[in-house]
Each structure stands twice: as C-alpha cells, then as structure tokens.
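HUMAN: Now follow token order:
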Amino acid sequence: MKKLNFIKELRSFLLLWSSQTVSELGTAMTSYALIIWIYGQKGTASSITLLTICTFLPTIIFRFIAGTLADRWDKKRIMLLTDLAAACGTITVLVLYSFSTLRIWHLYVINVLLSFMNAFQNPASFVATSMLVPRKYYTRVSGLQSFSNSVVSILAPALGSCLLAFGGMTMVLVCDLVSFCVAFFVLLFFIKIPEIEYAEEKNREPFLKSCLDGVHYLRDHAALLHITLFIAIINFLAKLGNDGMISPFVLSRTGNNQQVLGMVQSAVALGLLAGSLIVTVMKPVRNKSKVVFVTTAFIFAGNVVQSLTLLPLVWCIAAFVSYIPAVIMNANLTAIMREHIPVEMQGRVFSAKDTLQNCTIPLGLFLGGVLADYVIEPFMATDSPIQELLSRFFGSGSGSGIAVMFFFVGVFGIVISLSRLKKPIYKDLNQ
C-alpha cells in the first residue's frame, strides 16, 4: 500500500524523471564520444578540461539572473526552450561532423552557448521538482535522481563505445536527438507544473533587487552560507582530483586505453548507483550536515588510493567505494536546501548557492589542466631527488604527475571535511 501511495503521489515527477533520464543518456553518450574525439585530436589534459570549463563558466556567470526569472516565469516553458536549444547544439555538431568540418573550437563555442541556456534550466528544474514532490519525499527523490544519473553514467560509456564502433560519431549524435524528442514531448503534453502565487508587491519588485534576494537570504542564514562555501572548496579540490582529471589520468597512464577509461567510469557509476539505492530506501537522518562532512572525507580517500597504484582494478574498486557516499552527501545537502528555503524563493537562493559553490569549478579545471601539462608532469619526467622520491610512490612516466595531484588533493580534502564536524554553526541545519 505504501508503495502504491508513493507512486500515486509522485506520478508527475516519476514521468518527468524517467523521460529526462532517457534524454540525459543520449547527452552523456555524446559527451563521452566527444571527449574521446578531442583527446584523439590533441592528446592533452588541458584540451579536455577546457571543454568542461566552457560547460560550466557561462552557467555560473548568468545564474543570478536565471534564478530570478525561474521564480517569475513559467517553469515548464523555460525547461522546454532550454531543451530545444540543447537539441540545436547537437544538430550543429552533427552537421559539422558530417561535412568533416568539425573543429575543437566549434565544440568550445557550442558548449558556451548551451551552458548559457543551462543557467536557466537548472533553477527551473529544481523549483519544478519541489513543486511536484511532497516535502516528506525530498531525500528519496534525491536518491532517485542520483539513481538515474548513475544508470546513465554506467550505460553511457558502454553504449557510446558500441555506437562509435559500429556507427561512428554520427550514430551517437542521432541517438542523442531521438532521446531528446522523447523527453521534450513527454514534458510538453503530459506534465503539468503548478504555478506559485506571488504577492503583488513581489511582482513589482525591481529586477536587480530580486536577483540579489538569494544572496541576502544566504547572508542572513549563516549555516546555509557556511555549508555553501564549504562545498565551493570541495568542488575546487575535486576538479583538481579524480572528479575533474580522471579521464586524462587513466588515458595517460594506460596509453590512451578507452576500455580502461570506460571501466573506471562505469565503476564510478556503479558506486553512485549503490549509493542511490541506499538513499532511496533509508530513512532520513536528523544530523544531515554531519553526514555531508563525513561522506566528503570518504570521497577524497578514493583519490589517495588511486594515486598510489598502476592497477586498473584498484582504480575501479576505489572509484566504486568512494562514490557510494557521494550520493548520500548530495541527497542530504539537497534536502537541507529544500527544507530551509521557501519554495517561492528557491530559484533565487538555489542560483545564489549554485553560483557560490560552483564558481571554483572552472578555476579547479583550468589549474588542473595547466598543472598536469606544464608543471607536475614535466617535473616527474626530470631527474631530481624529489622526483626520485615521488616516483617510489607514484611511479614514473606519463600520468605520474596527475597521480601526485590526486594524492595531495585527497589528503587536503579529508582534512578539510573532518575539520567541519565540530563547528557548532551547522546545528541550525539539523532542526
């Protein structure tokens, strides 16, 4: 009976979630194929990280404006328009590739434009989920979303590799477009997202002031601001470590072995899948902030383990074990935000929070690529006492410099995460 009630109460969300998952699978396959294509063209870590920077930076820059518009405008319309823009980006790549005129800089430009649209998609989707889901299901819904992300991460490398082998890049892009059509028409015809009634004075509020409401809300709620800044630090370190550098790390250490990269990425996804199942069935915990800090420490432990071995099997085991708590962390963090932010302000506060915690991601990606290609990798190829000492732990040759980065990032991440446990300010988040 409880299961039937769960499905009935979440019918619209489950329909939206499942159709969007299909579209996300198509997008993930395209992203995987393009990473392989770019690395084959350039063979450098920075060429891959620059693509990711283009994906993040415009979203971060325009998020404040997008959050205000997401609160004021029709959420469904925003989601449809941004999905349509994403499809246009895929069509452009398909046309350029079909005529053998696709260049790496084309992908950078396209990702910048899509990232701009994504600035509007994310807050609209976040608020839409809050409106479709009863409060008691917030944590479990986060688990479901993580579950679908994990399934996508598992299937994307495998399916992407198969499609590349048998149909080439064209087949991957066509499948991406088909998956978009499924999600677009389900949202257009079968999902009704309720609108929020705003007070008249709120509708007349100056746009700039409304954009800053999210920042003011975080400023007035110190615990939310502190945990947001903590995640900003974690994001920076993560992009220097295996979250941002796993592809160049594996490809460089294995001589561009795509199969090993797919295995490691699938292990990450399996860990996320296991964590998603745990979150979906477990009862919500009271001390959510403590869970966030403990789980981030476990995540960074995976960096340390991966840095100290050349065995792909150990990379996979470390990825699986360390990413189980990643889902638990994210689900509890999301539940904290939904529970402590009024739904009529979630677009603005979510955007402010997202901007603050993600502004460090481009810096981490850029610095990671530069350090790998021009500093640590060249240093590990020279003869010196320090290099000789480091090579005893991290090996030598291509990828050893990235391994050194992984180790120190992991240690710093563990220390910073555990140091938050005794801070009394986070008690307000557990009420």
User: Anything to note?
Assistant: DSSP finds 18 helices and no strands in the chain.
